[in-house]
């Protein structure tokens, strides 16, 4: 398998995301410079695998006209929900990014498309920013640490959306310390104060 890398970076331009292929982009704690649409550092950068667009364009009418239409900040190659884990830290350009949670909100999406993403597990994920700096399209993502190899994005999606009644899995994921606080709160609420040993 090839080294994963950033295929495109998207900067918000009015109500759409435009690709910026050759420009070094500053990455701060709340996201890409120009894309500061959240105050939640756990959702600083929405990352989406390029290969999913082939799937969507086979079933959607009309198909997407270009990458970036799902609102991603970063489109990547050689990465996916089955291989990316919570807490994975990557060096990208001058920055260090850490995987925090799958995407589960409907920001920039209509509800029907959001539900399709959840049902298929083709959700993408969010990064928090551990080290601010610059990156650009074509940058490699070099894995620095993988503290939770069992908690892939795919596994997290299954616990959150498919196996809601499995309290042991819910408990285990809720105690993954590098999972975003918003997800941990939902899971702990589902447990209702019950401790699973």
TrEMBL record:
Pfam families: MOSC (PF03473), YiiM_3-alpha (PF03475). InterPro entries: Benzoxazolinone_Detox_Enz, MoCF_Sase_C, Pyrv_Knase-like_insert_dom_sf, Tri_helical_YiiM-like. Residues 16-144 form the MOSC domain. GO terms for molecular function: catalytic activity; molybdenum ion binding; pyridoxal phosphate binding. PANTHER family: PROTEIN YIIM (PTHR30212:SF2). This is 6-N-hydroxylaminopurine resistance protein.
